[in-house]
Amino acid sequence: MIFVIVQDQNQQPVANASCTSIVHWPDGRNESFTLTTNTNGVGMIPLSFASQPYGSLIYTDVTCTYNGLTGSTTTSFRIWY
Fold this sequence. Notes:
Strand content: over 45%
Helix content: under 10%
Order of helices and strands: EEEEEE
């Protein structure tokens, strides 16, 4: 599960931000997910995978838009079984 947290410059939650996440799998495949943040500024992306190499580093690019403003970041995680 990937949690996306969107906050404004005052660290207040941003509800209804539109976000896209692109997960870059080790096999070269890219998978795109979309979400909208809730009233707490949180959105969740459920991940399901199989047959990925143990210990692989998975990069994820996240871009969120709200009222014409856009922010983006990159995060990563490792596969541990």
